[in-house]
């Protein structure tokens, strides 16, 4: 039975799940969860994810939501690839995935909402105060990540891991959200490597503007 992956590719969180599935070559059925049409609020989707958010997966009777949990599950389909078998190395990857959820993603989300989501869904223009708050939070987080990437090719260990995919997915909105990356050369270098992956281009091709309900 083919795994079903419900996602909205324009969202970094949906992009993340699709990106890992594509990179690993895990067979899946893509099910568009069109946020513009309110697909996430339907009874059928709520039965998959009661939070009415995406992404989510169905693997037979097993249902899973939260993007980082999803990519961790996908990685178990290909043991030893993006999730190290060594316990300390695995903990290092997990640390950055948790940091993505608590620090990196929230900072990007503010700028994404103000500069991208509002325009897509006709919610008015950016709120200057919120933009300022988002840029402050982003610069704090970016400073940490940029310093960590000094002299490193990857976020955790010496090869690609879920940490790279979890964090880099936000860069799909780097241009439209106007993420202030100019002062962070290490993030730019690492980001260029991630965006050059064949899987990245495959998921970018899946992106489409939402259709209003």
Give the secondary structure arrangement, pairings included.
Layout: E1 3-7, H1 12-24, E2 28-32, H2 43-46, E3 56-59, E4 62-65, H3 67-75, H4 87-120, H5 128-148, H6 162-168, H7 185-195, H8 198-204
Parallel strand pairs: 1-2
Antiparallel strand pairs: 1-3, 3-4
Helix pairs in contact: 1-3, 1-6, 1-8, 4-5, 4-6
Give me the number of helical elements: 8
Mean pLDDT: 95
**Classification by helices and strands:** alpha+beta
Tell me what the CATH architecture of the largest domain is. Up-down Bundle
- What level of helicity do the residues show? 40-55%
Q: β content, as a range? A: 5-15%
Radius of gyration: 17 Å
Number of domains: 2
- CA distance, first residue to last residue: 32 Å
Q: Would you identify the regions where 5 or more consecutive residues have pLDDT less than 50?
A: none
* β-strand number: 4
Assign the CATH topology of the largest domain.
Glutathione S-transferase Yfyf (Class Pi), Chain A, domain 2
- Give the overall silhouette: globular
CATH class of the largest domain: Mainly Alpha
Order of helices and strands: EHEHEEHHHHHH
Largest sheet: 4 strands, mixed
- Strand order in space, largest sheet: 2-1-3-4
Task: Describe this protein's structure.
The chain is 50% helix and 8% strand. By secondary structure, the chain is an alpha+beta fold. The protein has two domains: 84 residues, 3-Layer(aba) Sandwich (Glutaredoxin), CATH 3.40.30.10; 111 residues, Glutathione S-transferase Yfyf (Class Pi), Chain A, domain 2 (Up-down Bundle). It has a four-stranded mixed β-sheet, covered by helices on one side. β3 and β4 form a beta hairpin.
């Amino acid at each position: 039975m083919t795994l079903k992956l419900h996602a909205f590719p324009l969202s970094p969180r949906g992009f993340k799940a699709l990106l890992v599935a594509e990179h690993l070559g895990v067979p899946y059925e893509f099910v568009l969860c069109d946020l513009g049409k309110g697909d996430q609020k339907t009874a059928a989707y709520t039965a998959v994810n009661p939070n009415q958010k995406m992404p989510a997966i169905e693997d037979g009777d097993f249902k899973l939501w939260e993007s980082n949990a999803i990519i961790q599950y996908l990685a178990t389909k290909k043991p030893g690839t993006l999730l190290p078998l060594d316990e300390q190395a695995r903990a290092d990857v997990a640390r950055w995935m948790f940091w993505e959820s608590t620090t990196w993603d929230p900072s990007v989300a503010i700028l994404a909402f103000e500069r991208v989501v509002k325009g897509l869904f006709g919610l008015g223009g950016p709120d200057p105060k919120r933009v300022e708050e988002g840029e402050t939070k982003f610069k704090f987080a970016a400073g940490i990540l940029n310093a960590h990437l000094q002299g490193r090719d990857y976020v955790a260990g010496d090869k690609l891991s879920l940490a790279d995919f979890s964090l880099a997915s936000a860069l799909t909105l780097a241009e439209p959200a106007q993420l202030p990356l100019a002062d962070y050369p290490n993030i730019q270098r690492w980001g260029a490597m991630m965006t050059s992956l064949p899987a990245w281009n495959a998921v970018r091709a899946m992106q489409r503007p939402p259709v209003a309900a």
